[in-house]
Amino acid sequence: MDHSQAILPTRSLGKTGLMVTILGFGGIPIQLVSEEQAIATVRRAHELGVTFFDTARAYTNSEERIGKALEGRKYIVATKTGARDAEGAYADVLRSLENLRREQIDLYQVHGVNDDGELERVLSAGGALEGLRRAHQEKKIAHIGITGHRRETLIKAVQICAEFETVQVPFNVVEDDIIDTLLAECSRRNIGTIAMKPVGGGNFSNAPLAVKWCLNQPITTAIPGMASPTEVEEDVAVGVGDIQLTPVEREQCEQMKEELGPRICRRCGYCQPCPNGVNIFLLLNGTGIIRRMGVERYREWGAEQAIAGAENCQECEICVGKCPYNLPIPELIREALAYYKTVPGLK
Ligand code: SF4
Ligand code: SF4
């Protein structure tokens, strides 16, 4: 495709005022390819007009690779800290600045705030927000955001803390039930919305259509992960085209939702804790974690204990009753265990 004439539209990232391309760059997959390929991928995105690059301290070398690829170029960068205390969050900012080769980071997000307890820790005295506030006062970061999987916690976060200027959340053709709740609340408060996993972490058969669906929704930007220049070109082709869905495409999206919806874990955590200590979250999401981040990362997160602990599942279905999507959790656990047996390096 000739991209020379096509320009990616931009939208304002809420009250940050940053103008970002509707298609951003998700920085998870570049940690799994060679450095040469990672840099070529990031540069191709920049050449084709992508201005918003998202990464995280947790994505191993992703920050360093983006920093190296785009040193001296103009772009907007967002990264994240998993720390929950002020000292840890501030130290992460310093590390990110070094990795990204920047004097200031445009957006620094508190990563993966998935329940109200976590939110309380972040906001409490000595919590992560305090560290980010300090970095903001010192102009090391320009804006503060939050990321997570649970809409109620994110709604609460933006309602009680005006310092969060953006929200990043999974949002795609299957995980679409935040439009009237979280997205509406963000819109009322002029908070920028960043859609992660627009192609369901690689689960959707028609990725370009899934990206198109997402760009057509009330979000600021969608950030599919990209691992090669070819993937960048495919995603940019969607972003520079007509993003209105045709009736046929709407129908195809509905089909995708019907096929996958009853099987995909939204990582909301409502099913937990299991009375028998089964780590449902890790067991149900390992396939995506391995695909996006590699088996080593899955092991670091405690995959082997989770797999061993799956033996304790009594198939009582208490978790099914708590899952808002009525997922057949014991069956999905069995399927996941069968898959893990085939993964080299996983016991
Ligand atoms: S079905 Fe298994 S995983 Fe779910 S609550 Fe019961 S024991 Fe736990
Ligand atoms: S199984 Fe259901 S309740 Fe549990 S994390 Fe997944 S979507 Fe949420």
Can you give a write-up of this model?
The longest helix has 15 residues. The N and C termini lie far apart (44 Å). The protein is globular and about 55 Å long. It is built from 15 helices and 10 strands. By secondary structure, the chain is α/β, with parallel strands linked by helices. It folds into 2 domains: 236 residues, Alpha-Beta Barrel (TIM Barrel); 61 residues. Strands 3-4-5-6-7-8-9-10 form an 8-stranded parallel beta sheet, with helices on one face. It has a two-stranded antiparallel ribbon with strand order 1-2. The site of one iron/sulfur cluster has 14 residues, from α14 and α15.
Q: Which structural category do the helix and sheet elements fall into? A: alpha/beta
CATH superfamily of the largest domain: NADP-dependent oxidoreductase domain
Largest sheet: 8 strands, parallel
Order of H and E elements: EEEHEHEHEHHEHEHEHEHHHHHHH
Q: Which distinct ligands sit in these coordinates? A: iron/sulfur cluster
CATH structural class of the largest domain: Alpha Beta
CATH fold category name of the largest domain:
TIM Barrel
Computed over alpha carbons, the radius of gyration is 20 Å
Number of folding domains?
2
Distance between the termini: 44 Å
* Strand line-up across the major sheet: 3-4-5-6-7-8-9-10
Q: Spans with pLDDT under 50 lasting ≥5 residues?
A: none
Short characterization:
The protein has 347 residues and is an alpha/beta fold. The chain contains 15 helices and ten strands.
